[in-house]
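Task card 7
Instruction: Convert sequence to structure tokens.
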Amino acid sequence: MVIQAAKSILLVVSALFPIVDPIGGSPVFLLLTREYPAETRRVLARRIAINSFVLLIASYTIGSHVLSFFGISIPVVQVGGGLVVISAGWALLNQKDGGDRNKVSPTVSCTDALNKAFYPLTLPLTVGPGSISVAITLGANETVHHWSANLLMLLAAAIGCAFVAATIYPCYAFADKLASVMGPTGMNVILRLSSFLLVCIGVQIFWNGASKLLSSLPQAASLVGSH
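Output:
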């Protein structure tokens, strides 16, 4: 049973970490928080990590039940979420380059910054529809036979989600260190490339859902015709 729990932890981490991708998301985070003081950015990164853990474990445990209650399928979530990610990436891609990225705005307070911690910094830029759909799928596919195994699998999922969320903090909190190493020109290239990749990820998420919906049309048509 312990071995199964260890496998579950590895499965959760290996499935979610590449999609959450805190390393690739750090330039986008820096772009959206470039006017914040370094200390505020670190507080914000900590809050995003906590929000991400809650969102991932909630998706794993009750995500499929919530979707069933509202009659929503995972492909629909992927289509809707993909459109949101495309919109966010497109806005970042077309955002004008600020004159001085190192300039700190004195009007931005920590409270104002934390208002953006959940949306858009946690959802959809860190834990997006791709991560949520994978977490829901992992939770829905987890088969247990008694309460002790259920608790063990839940603990394993919590550990895996916590590990993924914990990697977000250092990547986001010290994104400014990457900027200082890369320089303004190099960082601008990374930011634009990350924004473009965000659009591409959104298109891929959208297509994953749309292709499943399109493939179900013949079966739905046959059911209608049989009646």
